[in-house]
Amino acid sequence: MRVLVVGTGGREAAIGWKLKQDPKVKKIFFARGNASTEEYGENIYEDSIPELVEFATREKVDLTIVGTEAPLVDGIVDEFKAAGLKIFGPNAKAASLEGSKAFSKRFMQDHGIKTAKAQVFEVYQDALDYVKDHKFPLVIKASGLAGGKGVVICETLEEADAVIHDFMIRRIHGDAGIKLVIEEFLQGFEASIICFSNGEELFPCIPVKDYKKVGEGDEGMNTGGMGTVAPSPEFNGMHYADFERNIMLPTLKGLKQENLSFKGFIFFGLMVTAEGSYLLEYNMRLGDPETQVILPLMENSLVDVINDCMEGKPVELKFADKKAVCVVMVSGGYPRNIETGLEIKGTDKVDTLCLLAGARKGGNSYYTTGGRVVNVVGFGETYDDARKQAYDNIKKVSFDYGFYRHDIGLFEQKK
User: Fold this and answer.
1) In 72, 171, 347, 393, which residue has its Cα 20 to 30 A from 165's Cα atom?
2) By 3-state DSSP, what share of the chain in percent is helix, strand and coil, each rounded to 5?
3) What is the pLDDT of residue 414?
4) Average pLDDT over residues 332-354
5) pLDDT tens-digit series, residues 383-392
6) Does residue 415 register a pLDDT over 70?
7) Is the pLDDT of residue 338 over 80?
């Protein structure tokens, strides 16, 4: 098989790593990829959807996997299918479940999916008036795509007013924030569940814990993710049954009723409270950095599972009875202002899975190109073992101003 992977992050590096191990995969292309994907296949520099369609047609690509969200929202699946190309992912209409938080919240409410109470606002003054009459904390979300940084938990009215102004007037996230979702704050722990869809059924992977805050102890700004643990030690069988009954199955029913069924990935971002599991958001693709711990533990061939889904067949996912911990090293200033072009040292000394994301190769060296730069994944029979391997190895890697959280998986005492 000849496979094209669309995206540039650690997730795409993890996909490439998984595909590289499959004897059925003869060639992997990455658009645009990164320093790690260059080791697994060929990075290409076609960017636009028409260019990618032309490339996949010319190079006789057998399967395209879309890692990142923007091309899905922009209709890459529709364009590839129109050209007779095989691609795994939702069409533009279904991708709106990620591309528009306003659309997805309406979908959740219409189909009885357990989610936080919320309202959508398109008028600045209406949003200001609304928060005056509500208790805090409140959660304010940019409706559009904001790279994982468009969600703010506001503790005070002053903070809420400032965020609304930043999103709707200053437009710090561009057009993504001109429409807002303001919802109640839920207290609990987060969990991520990614499912494969064959158009008729959803097949869940193991649950993952993602660390979104930039600082130790879950302090500071939201990021795209500072690390992950799989399987989530907090998310038990009772939580899963609640998720399946009140979130996953109503979602599947809603997809069919609204003609949004698709063959691809769907990511459920959950908040688990004393009252059960609530759906925070949908992503319509693999998560980052969730993928970095899911795929190494998945014993199935990724292309076999995707091909079965594309043919509408049921799949049986199998995962190793091990633990995985991913720690992400990021650029100084992340998630705001960052400096790039800094040399990355020590990756050759890492003796576990090391995936470069925001990095490029120059000569025999690697240089930073983005915010989330290095993913180091540790494995073990216990969480402590996996965590130790991850941290023992990420200490070997360095670049100017780079940092990482030291508490990924720290709470884990379970075996």
Assistant:
1) 72
2) 30, 30, 35
3) 42
4) 96
5) 999 999 999 9
6) no
7) yes
Q: Choose among 316, 319, 314: nearest CA to 299.
A: 319
Please state, in angstroms and rounded to a whole number, the distance separating the CA atoms of residues 405 and 220.
Answer: 12
Work out the angle between the directed axes of helices 124-132 and 157-168 (0-180°, nearest 10). Answer: 170
User: For 215-251, what is each residue's pLDDT tens digit?
Assistant: 999 999 889 899 999 999 999 999 999 999 999 999 9
Which of 355, 362, 357, 365 lies closest to 338 in space, CA to CA?
Answer: 357
Let me know: does 73 contact 103? Beta carbons within 8 Å.
Answer: no
Q: At what angle do helices 101-110 and 92-99 cross, to 10 degrees?
A: 100
C-alpha–C-alpha distance, residues 327 and 226, integer Å: 7
Q: Which residue is it, tokens 């193991």?
A: 206
The tens digit of pLDDT for each residue in 157-215 reads 999 999 999 999 999 999 999 999 999 999 999 999 999 999 999 999 999 999 999 99
Nearest to 16 by CA among 45, 41, 50: 41
For tokens 């690390």, the residue is: 227
Q: In what order do the strands lie in the sheet with 202-204?
A: 202-204, 189-198, 263-273, 276-283
Q: How many CB atoms lie within 10 A of CB 354?
A: 21
Structure tokens at 4: 């094209």
According to DSSP, the residues that pair with 398 across neighbouring strands are: 345
**pLDDT the model gives residue 84:** 98
pLDDT the model gives residue 263: 98
Token representation of residue 324: 């995985």
Please give the angle made by the CA atoms of 251, 102 and 172, to the nearest 5 degrees.
135
| Secondary structure of residue 128 in the 3-state scheme | helix
CA torsion angle 325 329 333 334 (round to 10): -50
Using one digit for the tens of pLDDT, what is the confidence trace for 23-44? 999 999 999 999 999 999 999 9
* Ramachandran sector of residue 386 (left: φ over 0; alpha: ψ -120 to 50; beta: rest): alpha
**Token digits of residue 313:** 């067949």
pLDDT at 288 over 50: yes
Residue 409, phi-psi category: left (phi > 0), alpha (psi -120 to 50), beta (remainder): left
